[in-house]
Every structure is written in C-alpha cells, then in structure tokens.
Amino acid sequence: MSGSDAHDPRARGSQGGHAPHPETRRTPPTASHRPVDSHSHSHSHSHKDVADDHEARGSGAEDPMAQASGAETHAPDAPPTPQDALAPVLRPVPTGNGFEAALEQILQVVRLGLVPAGERLPAERDLAIRLGISRVTLREVLKVLHDEGVVESRRGRYGGTFVLARNRVPGEDEVRRRIGAVDVADLLRFRAVLETGAVELCAERRLTGRDAERLRAALTRTQDAPLAEYRRQDTRLHLTLAELSGSPLLTAQYTTVRAQLNELLDCIPLLVRNLEHSQRQHSALVDAVLSGDADGARALMREHCAGTAALLRGFLT
Question: What DSSP designation does 11 have?
C-alpha cells in the first residue's frame, strides 16, 4: 500500500470511477492429532487437561465461542481451510518453545487486526489444535495476554476471550519505543522484497476460480471499508496476496513483517491524498496479478511499498 497503507473509502479503482456518496457506502460486516505440548517450561498434563484434549478430539458438537469469533468452524481434526483469515498466522509451533511461539502468533493475530477489538478469539479447543499445544500451555499464554491488557475473559454462554481496544493514537513515548524496537529501514527493505516476490508468484500462478475470487473480494473489502476499518482490511488484502503466492515460508515471514509494519503505521496520520492513491494502486495491482503480468505486478508493488516507506521515513525518522 502506498504511503501509510491507508485509504479513503471514497477512492475507487484505477479507472477513475466515481466515489460513492458517504451515506450510501457499504460497511463491511463486523466481524488429526492430539495437541502436543511444546512449552519450553515443561508441564505434565493434569487429568482435566487430558480430558480437555479428549473432548477436543472426540466431540462433534459445534462450539458457540468458535462460531462467534468470526473464524470458520472446523471439525477438530481438520486443518483450517485456505479461506480462514487466521490460517496464515496460526500454525503448529516448533518443539521446545511452544509457550513463546504461541504467544507470538496470538499477538500477531491481534496486531494484524485479524480479530478486531471487541471480537472473540477462537475457542480454546480450536486454538490449541491450530497451535499444536496443550490447553494447559494455551491458558498460560492467555493469562499473560490478559495481564498485559491485550484480551479479557468473559463468562457465560457467550463468553470467551475477547480482544481489547488499543489506544488509537500512540503517545510520544510509545512512538519512540516502537521506532527503537525495530530497524525501520531494514524492515521496509525486507517488506518490499517479500511483497514484490509474492505478487510475482501470484501472477505466474495464473489465479483462477476460488483463488481469483478471494483476491477480488479482499480488494472490494478495502474499497468498501470505512476509514477506521481500512488498515485492517488493507492488511487482509496484502496477507491474501502472500498466501496466494503458494509459498508457506513467504507467508510466515510476511505475517511477522506486517505485524511490525502495522505498529509503525499506527503512529502516522491517515492522509486523504495518499489514501486515494493507495486504492488506485491496489486496483491496478490486482488487475496485473489476475492478468498474469508478473513484471507489471512487481513494478506496481515496488512503487506501492516505496510510497509507504517515504511516509514512514518522513514522519518517524
């Protein structure tokens, strides 16, 4: 996304189409194995946890918390489908650092906006299976997130673990902390390498059918998003391109980079001129990918990333 990777929902396509009236703009709707505990601080399963794991494997009942989370509901032993918005981030963690790796992945889900503030994370059973950890370890992860003010637990039939809203405009001290936490120049370089490679691979794959529809739908969501929702939908568009590249390694690397990038983007303002330009670039980029123009897609994405880098350097360095 060019500039702040932010956009004005009035901007439409690369063909100069008319922007919808604000009052008529559509608003997107709000939202086969036993888990292996790879927690680095070794824990033995309690009887209750073994029973929980048995329930996770054997129960065919649908979990209302999983349904309410906004993620697709899967049979316990089935892997998530490619259309699942959380699939690029939530994956089995490496042996030896289960607690730390699971904490990182759930934080990425929050920072990428894949589960927005006020919405519910998938049920414990689903999360444990996706991450390949026991529910004992998962509960320790969720306790840390609760203590840090990232999530809250609610009881009752419609309870679960809910994402808390973050301060939309970071203070000066927080901005300095975020800038100091990463090498901004290197992050922007690596982002450009990953994203130009992803769109080239997508174009070479000649996306058709469901894959092409997924990409078009992701673009439409950015076009229809109200301003406050745009960055989350923009993130989903870029994650969709990474996932459709067909390279799980590239997708995994991009989710990490994008989470760091979003921390920086939240520190700069949304600029209407940049937003309109960004959406035109998005539309041209999707057209190039779907027409199989790998060189054109690379060039468009390179320009797109350069715009973001320019604004971030201007505001933050």
Answer: -
